[in-house]
Amino acid sequence: MLKISLDKLGKLFEAISASQTLYIPTDREDGAAEYKKYESGMKLSNNLNTLRSAKDFFFPQTENLVDFKMEGKNIEVIDVREESEDFVIFGVRACDARSFTILDKVFLADPVDSYYKNRRDHGTVVTMACTRPAETCFCGTFGIDAAAPEGDAACYSDGESLFIEAHNEKGQKFIDSVASLLEEGDAAKLDEVREKTRDILKKLPLANLTTDNFGGDKLNEYFNSDKWGELSQSCLGCGTCTFVCPTCQCYDIKDFNTGHGIKRFRCWDSCMYSDFTKMAHGNPRLTQLERFRQRFMHKLVYFPANNNGEFGCVGCGRCLSKCPISMNIVKVMKALEVK
Amino acid sequence: MQEAMINRAKQLLADGSVDRVIGWKRGEFVYDITPAVFTSAEELDADFVYDDFTAANVSKYLVKESKKEGKILAFLKPCDTYSFNQLIKEHRIVRENIYVIGIPGGPKLDAERIKANGITGILGAKNDNGTLIIDTVYGEEKMPYYEALSVKCLNCKSKKHVVYDELIGEDGDILDSNRFDMVEKLENMTAQERYDFWREQLSKCIRCNACRNVCPACTCEKCVFDNPDSGVENKAATDSFEENMFHIIRAFHVAGRCTDCGECSRVCPQNIPLHLLNRKFIKDINSLYGDYQAGEDTTSRAPLNDYKQDDCEASIVHERGVE
Amino acid sequence: MNNDTLIPYIGVVTDIRQDTPDVKTFRVVSPEGGKVFEHMPGQCAMLSIPGVGEAMFSITSSPTNKEFMEFSIKKCGCLTTWLHAMDVGQQITIRGPYGNAFPVETDLKGKDLLFIAGGIGLAPLRSVINYVRDNRANYGDVQVIYGSRSMDDLVDYKEIIDEWMADAGIQVNLTIDNPQEGWDGHVGFVPNYVKELNPSTSKTVLVCGPPIMIKFTLAGLKELGFTETQVYTTMELRMKCGVGKCGRCNIGNKYVCKDGPVFRFDQLGELPDEY
């Protein structure tokens, strides 16, 4: 396998960023990691994962869909789409890499969302195997191996070198573009590293959480569960879980009059918000119970029902860390589970 | 303390004094505690927790809970009692339906602050004379206890309960906190430095509304930012200043009513020090209208609702703006 | 880049008729003339005035009409108020068609059909009724039971009187909620009228109207011996994208915009009661 010494990572980043935009997770002043556009000297974060997920790269929080010019009774539609430039996201974890395939199932399903596809086509996802998973991790629940992430190309560290392996043509193209910095290396030690990580994963507090009792066939069983009231009673109805979630994909479309025309935006929305399903003549989800139920039913029942059993969660643990009242999908699964 | 609370709650449930108990429920880990309503001794025994991580302020839940049938027992920390009083003052909660037990407060820990120190795989944490010893998946880790404190507890203003029906433990005093130090620091910056500080902080905002939804002063039935007819309802940021306006407007709306409970900063997923905006207002109100602590009592007139002839003139804004 | 369904076309409003005090029917054509796109009966389109709003409306004209599309719209929110205030010649944006359709070319073919509508609920059914009239040989008996609050609230009254009632191929039964001067027809609520008329259970039913009317009509039909597999309806929930991605119009795992809006009652029965 090709490798580069860890102390030469800076050189690797320089080389990538010379030809295309590179994003890496880097630490900010409060200790949290976030993806930033690489600039000379920027250090790769040691944090397990970024505070916000990587979904922004393909599904940004706000984007301009289309513009309109209004003149008298006439309307002009202005297509504001531009071909995206090539970019690389480096250091994506296994959970987030899987989230892209989940988002693909929504945005690339017919009719294809051209905004999403444009960015997806031009983005190369370079993943990084985990070595120090956290107590909040439960990617294994969804069949994800943190020690062997998906992505266009994957990186593994043995503590001295970073080994890089392509998973597809796009990944190979990426490796070829930095080939001059790479050398052939003995990956023997990697198996040991992977096994060590897998041992840790097995010992994590949520290692035994399974999806065995969830799925598309459990609709009425769980929808009518009497647990929703208790589970949702403290929910603040904020959008924290939704917005840190790598797979939450619901959106709103809004128009703004700029004074020079109308801009139509798409932005993230949350099923936890009270106005999410509000219509001029009523709202089918009147209380937080219904809204809360929707979010978890979507991930654990509706999504698998529509997507061959695939769940709408990757076990990244962000909602476990960030929910203001510490209510999350793990607690919901444990409380609901009908054996 | 936890045991004493559970026992007292069980007694009050058993003799029919209360029908429900609002407190905190144990989670999957040592720190992921959820505010919860308990209705039986069994539930209390199984899940009730009060420890270093029970930082959440439960007083806002009483807006809804106190309107239900029956009486609810609320365990309130000193800081929570200020929020409670303020809600009474604003006629948001039904006092007769609540039995308040004052309990000793923090300082409370915040797992996110532990994680920010590079410690991961947290399984347990205990304070050993100023050093926090953390049991992790990767072995034992140590860090200064102070650095793991919840941001809301860093400048505690009071250990005194301003309202209670009974106390467990002893009441404390109003503290001589240095909570305005950071505000002063910001005031002493140049306008550009201050602008840059806030722009950097507020640009992190993801508009999740956690700060607003947790805030005991934000109890509007329908927030203007959620109302499609208001013209300012938006989740899309049309420009980079959008989020800044949200926070500034919210700070204005809670000015004179914010008790400085710090929940906004505690829950912010992006670690924005939102409480500093509110503290600036508190500090200004103190200097312009005389010392005032929202939530200290339920009867006094709030400075911004109370007209006095010697109130400062509107020109104060202009005068202060001149650097 | 390919066209994207979220980027709308322009439509020109060439005719506006005041159907009832709060319903107007708008005729829409492409700026080049002709229809903006083809559709099947029951399908919907997203209409918008940029800066005001965008919402899903059922296409009330029949696909057999090759010149224009029509939308019957009740004034009830921000966008619909704007639409009601506009004049002929106004351009709007339009995208679609969205959703499934009534199975006019499959399950309904050769069947005796019973249409039951209340108020503005006639709008989606009008598309089917006129489609059936234009392909009359493909269907059996056709009966329309339609009711509204008053005579003035009957949508498409002129077309009903001049065309449908004059058409020997269909039977039309009208009713209004309360007696009114100038009305010598039936008075009473739709669900009761259906029971009084006691239609043959051999018919396939298409029902649309306010939720409460649908509920009682379905109950009445069951009393008469109809089964849920014989009854179709069309749903409406809050929508933004129209293509099953924005995530808000779901009932269980079905999206009304994509998997609906037309559902058979036995299919609806399998979904959670959240609409």
Give me the secondary-structure topology.
The complex is a heterotrimer of chains A (339), B (323) and C (275).
Chain A: E1 2-5, H1 9-19, E2 21-27, E3 33-37, E4 62-71, E5 74-79, E6 87-92, H2 94-107, H3 114-122, E7 123-128, E8 153-157, E9 161-166, H4 169-177, E10 183-184, H5 188-203, H6 219-223, H7 228-232, H8 240-244, E11 251-257, E12 262-268, H9 288-306, H10 318-322, H11 329-336
Parallel strand pairs in A: 2-6, 6-7, 7-8
Antiparallel strand pairs in A: 1-9, 1-10, 2-3, 4-5, 4-12, 8-9, 11-12
Chain B: H1 2-14, E1 20-25, E2 34-38, H2 41-47, H3 61-65, E3 72-76, H4 78-89, E4 98-102, H5 111-115, E5 122-128, E6 131-136, E7 139-144, E8 166-167, H6 181-187, H7 191-202, H8 210-214, H9 242-254, H10 263-267, H11 275-289, H12 316-321
Parallel strand pairs in B: 1-3, 3-4, 4-8
Antiparallel strand pairs in B: 1-2, 5-6, 6-7
Chain C: E1 9-20, E2 23-29, E3 44-49, E4 53-58, E5 69-74, H1 78-85, E6 91-98, E7 113-118, H2 122-134, E8 142-148, H3 157-164, E9 170-176, E10 186-187, H4 190-197, E11 204-208, H5 211-224, E12 231-234, E13 250-251, E14 254-255, E15 262-264, H6 265-269
Parallel strand pairs in C: 7-8, 7-11, 8-9, 9-10, 11-12
Antiparallel strand pairs in C: 1-2, 1-6, 2-5, 3-4, 3-6, 12-15, 13-14
Helix pairs in contact in C: 4-5
Notes on the protein architecture:
The complex is a heterotrimer of chains A (339), B (323) and C (275). Chain A is α+β, with helices and mostly antiparallel strands and 339 residues long. Chain A has helices at 9-19, 94-107, 114-122, 169-177, 188-203, 219-223, 228-232, 240-244, 288-306, 318-322, 329-336; strands at residues 2-5, 21-27, 33-37, 62-71, 74-79, 87-92, 123-128, 153-157, 161-166, 183-184, 251-257, 262-268. The longest helix of chain A is centred in the C-terminal third of the chain and has 19 residues, at 288-306. Chain A is globular, with a radius of gyration of 22 Å. Chain B has helices at residues 2-14, 41-47, 61-65, 78-89, 111-115, 181-187, 191-202, 210-214, 242-254, 263-267, 275-289, 316-321; strands at residues 20-25, 34-38, 72-76, 98-102, 122-128, 131-136, 139-144, 166-167. The longest helix of chain B is centred in the last third of the chain and has 15 residues, at 275-289. Chain B is globular. In chain C, strands 10-9-8-7-11-12-15 form a 7-stranded mixed beta sheet, with helices on both faces. In chain C, strands 4-3-6-1-2-5 form a 6-stranded antiparallel beta sheet, with helices on one face. Chain C is an alpha/beta fold. In chain C, helix 4 runs parallel beside helix 5. At the A-B interface, helix 8, strand 11, strand 12, helix 10 and helix 11 of A face strand 2, helix 5 and helix 8 of B.
